[in-house]
Amino acid sequence: MNRKGLNQGRSGNVSVRYGDGMLITASGCHFDEITPEHVVATDLDGHYQGPLKPSSERSFHAAIYRQRPDAQAVVHVHSPWATTLASLRRAIPAFHYMVAVAGGKDIPCTPYATFGTDELADHIANAVRDRDACLMANHGQIALAGSLDAALDLAMEVENLARCYAQALTVGEPVLLSDDEMDAVLDKFGSYRENAQASDEQ
């Protein structure tokens, strides 16, 4: 995440579903120096194993896994352009068809809440009820997927969309695609995902 410019230092966190719980990065770990020892096994109620504490934001990872049984991995980063829009509390609307990559006609921005709180976890669980990514007001972004690689790819796409949308706003208000067009794109994306999954299984 750091090498790709999505993150810096110790900000952000990553998890994968593991049995009835999850594996999540430890609190305060530096992503340029991470080792397997910095990954903590924890249940969805916050109880953990080992000497290191899990990320202070484990509550929203757990909330996502409860809300989305299909989610197998979650990537949370403070990427610059997504955070820029999040500080304005702006969702990413349908200014480009690739917005549909997050599963809907926009990429929502959650209300603000202090990091690590149940309030923030509730906001995020609500945002990803029918989306695979969201912005977090005055905070950053989250992407979820069926694997870590896919979640990282989605986080990168969200950051690119955030950059393009923010750049467009400096010139004027972008023309948005219609609901009918986004419905057509979402339908095509559904077929694309089915083909990609079939290819991965071969």
Automatic annotation (TrEMBL):
Keywords: Lyase, Metal-binding. SUPFAM superfamilies: AraD/HMP-PK domain-like (SSF53639). One of its GO terms (biological process) is pentose catabolic process. It comes from the Bacteria. GO terms for molecular function: aldehyde-lyase activity; metal ion binding. InterPro entries: Aldolase_class_II_sugar_metab (IPR050197), Aldolase_II/adducin_N (IPR001303), Aldolase_II/adducin_N_sf (IPR036409). The keyword Cell division does not apply. The keyword ATP-binding does not apply. GO terms for cellular component: cytosol. Residues 1-166 form the Class II aldolase/adducin N-terminal domain. This is Class II aldolase. It comes from Tamilnaduibacter salinus.
